[in-house]
Each structure stands twice: as C-alpha cells, then as structure tokens.
Amino acid sequence: MTGAEFDAYSRGKTFYFAEGGTPYGAEEYLDNRRVRWSFLDGQCKEGWWYEEGEMICFVYEDRPDPQCWSFVRSAAGLIATYQSDPTLTELYEVQKSPEPLLCLGPQLGV
C-alpha cells in the first residue's frame, strides 16, 4: 500500500492485530499521521508514521528508531510484514473499530 492508500484505509479507526491466531496489539490511527499503539495491556505509546519507499515506518515516543512494515490489503483486512526481519513478524487485522483505543493513565507510585 502507498502512504495515501494506507492513510485513507486507516485514519480515524483502531485496528486490532494478531500473529498466528494470538492477539498481538492494537493501533489507533489519528489525523496528521499520528498513531497510538498498545500491546493490549492498557499502556499506550504515542507515535507517528511516514512512507519510505514501499514501506510504512513508525516512530514512537519511547523508541526513536523507525519500525518499518509493508502493508497489503486482503479480503480479510490488512496484512503487515515487519521489514527489519520479515521472517519474524507478520500481523493480521482481526478487527477494526471507530472507537478510540483504551489507554489507562500513567502508573503513579508512592
């Protein structure tokens, strides 16, 4: 998918992804190519994405090195392949929602 195709398909939605049938995480796609990611533990990371060649690369607040993926749209939804090592991670869209991602507040200690 091109950046424009990816943006048109994802913006304003939250996608839930699985790897090999196991829930992996969810990402909310916001305006201006901003994103919010969670490993489904209530903790969210803010970030943004950009197009680099045929890849969509993500940068997050706690991880400044880009995480680049190729996205293909299938009849069942998105298939994302991690390009740093495509043999390790291939994620499948299992659900998309117009609802925002559930993020808990920061953990405050005593």
Topology:
Layout: H1 3-10, E1 14-19, E2 22-29, E3 34-38, E4 44-52, E5 55-60, E6 63-74, E7 77-82, E8 90-97
Antiparallel strand pairs: 1-2, 1-8, 2-3, 3-4, 4-5, 5-6, 6-7, 7-8
Oligomeric assembly:
single chain
Tally of alpha and pi helices: 1
Question: What percent of residues are in strands?
Answer: over 45%
Q: How many distinct beta strands?
A: 8
Helix content: under 10%
Distance between the termini: 47 Å
Q: Which tags fit this structure?
A:
110 residues; mainly beta; single chain; 1 helix; eight-stranded antiparallel β-barrel; globular
Question: Mind explaining what this structure looks like?
Answer:
- With 110 residues, the protein is mainly β.
- 7% of the residues lie in helices and 55% in strands.
- The protein has one helix spanning 3-10; strands at residues 14-19, 22-29, 34-38, 44-52, 55-60, 63-74, 77-82, 90-97.
- It has an 8-stranded antiparallel barrel.
- A hairpin with a 2-residue loop joins strand 5 and strand 6.
- It starts with a helix and ends in a 13-residue tail after the last strand.
- The mean pLDDT is 91.
Give a quick rundown of the structure.
With 110 residues, this protein is mainly β. Helices cover 7% and strands 55% of the residues.
